[in-house]
Amino acid sequence: MGTLWMKDGALPDRPTVLFLGDSITNDGRYIAYMDRYFERHAPERRPTFVNRGVSSETVSGLSEPDHPWPRPCLHERLDQALAESRPDWVVLCYGMNDGIYYPLSEDRFGAYREGLAKAVAKAKGAGAKTILVTPPPFDYASMGAQENRGSTAGAKGEYSYLRPYPAYNEDVLSVYKQWVLSLAPEVDAVVNVHDPLLRDIEAARAADPSFRYGDGIHPEARGHWIIAKTLLSRLFKRSSGARAGGSRGRFRSGASRRGRLRRRRIRVERLP
């Protein structure tokens, strides 16, 4: 399968890429890793990456009752983000918050489908190539290990990001992922980050049963690198690899605002 970069010869060599998403996108590390990759290995084709992720955001407009404030919705700001960024590409990564950490419900799933479809239509209407990214996985084992989190529903039987439905990944996000993948004929590209992240979680836990995937919702540096290298491969045909050595090393990204990051030792292959 060709990459999006190869798909349309009219694409600019240095596209402006607008990222829209929730707190995982707002964190910015996977975008910083991509930017650093181009800075080091292909500066002449380096895209302009614009991060407009917003913490807690959804495309569905839903909020769980226990959330401390109504969750922001992308559609409250999408027109402005498109007008200000004037992107060549729009990357949309939603779903983690859209199920509001409850069991699967057709009403909630329908709101997610409607909201994402509306965002795709707006991006296309702005003349941008549209890329969908599947929701990353939720790891209950990581959240359940934290004190006072991830145990049961609240006193009123209500779930929330603090007390999620234990099978949220298997019963909800996996369904959302499959639906996003089914949209491939309708958009310019779909990137599955859910499965690579889940495989890495499973492999890491097999090697070390105490392994934790961030807080269960938000990936740490290693997870962000997996997202970055998956996007680099799928969208840009850029080859990169992360390998675990005999001992854990330190990775320093000049584009990262978080300084020195604990992670597996990374080898980034040079471009052909």
Write a concise synopsis of the structure shown:
With 272 residues, the chain is α/β, with parallel strands linked by helices. 37% of the residues lie in helices and 13% in strands.
Features:
272 residues; SGNH_hydro_sf; SGNH_hydro; alpha/beta; SGNH hydrolase-type esterase domain-containing protein; Rossmann fold; 37% helix; Ester_Hydrolysis_Enzymes
Task: Characterize the structure shown.
This is SGNH hydrolase-type esterase domain-containing protein. It comes from Paenibacillus antri. Pfam families: Lipase_GDSL_2. One of its GO terms (molecular function) is phosphatidylcholine lysophospholipase activity. With 272 residues, this protein is an alpha/beta fold. It has one domain: 3-Layer(aba) Sandwich (Rossmann fold), CATH 3.40.50.1110. Helix content is 37%, strand content 13%. The protein is built from nine helices and nine strands. Strands 2-1-3-4-5 form a five-stranded parallel sheet, sandwiched between helices. The chain has a two-stranded antiparallel ribbon with strand order 6-9. The chain has a two-stranded antiparallel ribbon with strand order 7-8. Helix 5 links the parallel strand 3 and strand 4. Helix 3 crosses helix 9. It is globular. The protein starts with a helix and ends in a 5-residue tail after the last strand. The C terminus is likely disordered.
